[in-house]
């Protein structure tokens, strides 16, 4: 019963006394019918195992409800705050581009809870062990997409970036959804990535739910805002770094030294 209530609150931006759910600043101001109206949900610490498993499960349920209603949900990851929607929902995908003012030719990554699910949405030409050495973690792997993915998601490319963040909440959320999430950083395009929910407060009115997991890393450190390392593994035996990100050195060492991959320019 509580899950349904939280899911409803996620859509309308009401407050839930005692549950850590509070309305965003200025909610409803100037919003027309059908517009999102973000509510902020404070994430209990510790994950689903402890110390508040019920609160954690209710947070996941609220986010799932918002996503299934076609909404956008702000989530903490292992690098920066992100905005997620259901990747198979074409309308929600369009909403993410609108939210960020994002170039329509700039692709969105998909987010999954586990490596096993990656094979459904991608054509994999690297060893399974390589995937598991890098994921979950602060890395986006670019692979050839499968026919299972929504054709309206990045229709201009045969590739797709895959994220499995090393953060318990978003992994649980991804597992609770029947299909992949589309995931991007919680900021206006070309602006700095965000490490706290207050840093993307201007986006709140267009979000269905904001999951507040507290600060991610050191908010004073520019390195903490680099985002994931993006590496293209679509060409057999080779790799291309698309974005250096925060895990460049360890990623390149793994690819070159353990698996013998070479830079595509070589």
Show the helix and strand layout.
Elements lengths: L1 H11 L8 E3 L15 E4 L10 H16 L4 E3 L6 E5 L3 H11 L8 E3 L6 H4 E2 L4 H7 L4 E7 L13 E5 L4 H9 L4 E5 L23 E4 L16 E4 L5 E6 L4 H11 L3 E2 L3
Parallel strand pairs: 2-10, 3-10, 5-8, 7-11, 12-13
Antiparallel strand pairs: 1-2, 3-4, 4-9, 5-9, 6-7, 7-8, 11-12
Report the radius of gyration as a whole number of Å. Answer: 18 Å
Helices and strands, in order, run as HEEHEEHEHEHEEHEEEEHE
User: What helical percentage do the residues reach?
Assistant: 25-40%
What share of residues are in beta strands? 15-25%
Q: How far apart are the termini?
A: 58 Å
Tell me the major beta sheet: 13 strands, mixed
Dominant shape: globular
Task: Write up this protein.
- The chain has 266 residues and is α/β, with parallel strands linked by helices.
- The chain is built from seven helices and 13 strands.
- Strands 1, 2, 3, 4, 5, 6, 7, 8, 9, 10, 11, 12 and 13 form a 13-stranded mixed sheet that branches.
- Strand 12 (238-243), helix 7 and strand 13 (262-263) form a beta-alpha-beta unit.
- The longest helix has 16 residues, at 53-68.
- The radius of gyration is 18 Å and the shape is globular.
- Mean pLDDT is 87; it is low at 1-19 and 22-35.
């Amino acid at each position: 019963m509580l899950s349904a209530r939280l899911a409803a609150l996620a859509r309308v931006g009401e407050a839930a006394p005692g549950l850590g759910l509070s309305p965003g600043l200025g909610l409803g101001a100037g919003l027309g019918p059908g517009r999102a109206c973000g509510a902020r949900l404070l994430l209990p610490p510790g994950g689903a195992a402890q110390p508040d498993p019920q609160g954690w499960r209710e947070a996941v349920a609220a986010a799932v409800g918002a996503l299934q209603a076609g909404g956008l949900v702000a989530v903490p990851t292992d690098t920066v705050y992100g905005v997620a929607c259901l990747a198979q929902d074409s309308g929600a995908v369009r909403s993410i581009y609108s939210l960020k003012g994002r170039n329509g030719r700039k692709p969105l990554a998909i987010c999954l809870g586990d490596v096993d699910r990656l094979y459904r949405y991608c054509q994999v030409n690297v060893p399974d062990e390589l995937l598991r050495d890098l994921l979950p973690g602060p890395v986006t792997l670019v692979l050839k997409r499968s026919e299972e993915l929504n054709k309206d998601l990045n229709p201009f490319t045969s590739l797709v970036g895959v994220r499995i963040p090393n953060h318990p909440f978003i992994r649980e959320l991804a597992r609770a959804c029947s299909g992949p999430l589309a995931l991007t950083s919680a900021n206006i395009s070309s602006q700095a990535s965000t490490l706290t929910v207050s840093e993307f407060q201007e986006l709140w009115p267009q979000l269905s739910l904001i999951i507040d997991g507290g600060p991610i890393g050191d908010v004073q450190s520019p390195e903490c805002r680099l985002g994931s390392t993006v590496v293209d593994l679509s060409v057999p035996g080779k790799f291309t770094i698309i974005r250096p990100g925060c895990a460049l050195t360890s990623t390149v060492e793994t690819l070159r030294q353990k698996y013998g991959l070479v830079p595509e320019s070589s």
